[in-house]
């Protein structure tokens, strides 16, 4: 492909792809932030309410665990369709970029919760016992021992979640959710435009690589082990 051809192609499709990229970043960022706000505390509760935990409550742990497992077991495309009434109540429509954030967030919360629970399990029990022996309260142990010690794994979990949300956002595009997935389907697949399809895939790969690189750098900075 000559320079003139590439320049012409970019002039025709550049704005479309930039807008779609922004929509994807917007969906992933908002869904990720809301998912972390709810998912991280949920993961902490799952860890601390288990048998032998700081705030042992087996009944609560069992109920929350069942809810999280149900949320994780529903395929994302099925989830988007199943919660259309909820999406319409929250944003007034079930089509568009903002509407796609609702299922993305609901899908992210149980995913984050299990990752955070797993991250906290990696904290040596001896550290918790030492804090208890010094009279630390459960909340102090959570905020000053569990979360700080698990921070590298937590950041890695956040990175995994954001990468997963990128792929989910592409799926959302298949049902009018906007973003790069929407462009790939409408212009790449339906119009048989291989160039658009290829560029959207490349942009998704670049986006994932950026997220992964930033996450890896943050993990190295906070990991003092």
From TrEMBL:
Pfam families: BPD_transp_1. NCBIfam families: PRK10782.1. One of its GO terms (cellular component) is plasma membrane. Residues 21-212 form the ABC transmembrane type-1 domain. Keywords: Cell membrane, Membrane, Transmembrane, Transmembrane helix, Transport. PROSITE patterns: ABC_TM1 (PS50928). One of its GO terms (biological process) is D-methionine transmembrane transport. Belongs to the binding-protein-dependent transport system permease family. CysTW subfamily. This is ABC transporter permease. It is found in: Cell membrane. It is a multi-pass membrane protein. It comes from Vibrio ostreae. The chain crosses the membrane at residues 25-46, 66-84, 90-113, 154-174, 194-215. The keyword Transmembrane applies. Its main location: membrane. It comes from the Bacteria.
